[in-house]
Amino acid sequence: MRYLVCLLVGLLVGALVATTAANILNRRDPYPKALMNVMKHELGMASAAADRLQCEEDRYAMSKLAMMAGDIEIAMPAGQKPDRVFKQYVENFRKAIYKAGDTPCPQRAEALIELKNACDDCHRDYR
Ligand code: HEC
Is 62 in the pocket of ligand 1 (CB under 6 A)? Predict the structure, then answer.
């Protein structure tokens, strides 16, 4: 009997803690951060491949970045309508992606630094 009571109390407390934790975690939309972290990963992969002069090893990184750029304005700025400056940063970022993607491998690493700068330009104002 004592075990049964302990088990029930344990289940109840567990359920309470789980719902509280879920509520706290849900309060903020995880999508913007997730999107950004995946972009960071892709940029890192592309840069590593370019540094080894083996851009073809990560030929999809650039197209994935271009795809994700299309989602920035959907994901951010959190809950607000993107303003003109934000849109401009997204546009500059997109241009930098296409430019880097079209750059031959020996110069790719440099173009990816410009791309990284386009990330930082937006972060300076909006992060
Ligand atoms: C047009 C604006 C914009 C561009 C371009 C942009 N970011 Fe962000 N980034 C943001 C904003 C806004 C946040 C803050 C998001 C938040 O805290 O919810 C952010 C946050 C981040 C974070 C932190 C996420 C976390 O877990 O807290 C990383 C990493 C990041 N960006 C990487 C990048 C990389 C890499 C690029 C370029 C390949 C990039 N971003 C391009 C606006 C931008």
Answer: no
- Structure token digits, residue 22: 């879920």
Which pLDDT tens digits describe the chain residue by residue (127 residues)? Answer: 777 777 676 777 667 666 666 665 556 788 889 999 999 999 999 999 999 999 998 889 999 999 999 999 888 766 677 889 999 999 999 999 999 999 999 999 999 999 999 999 999 999 8
Nearest alpha carbon to residue 43 among 26, 66, 10, 11: 66
103 C-alpha vs ligand 1 centroid, how far in Å?
24
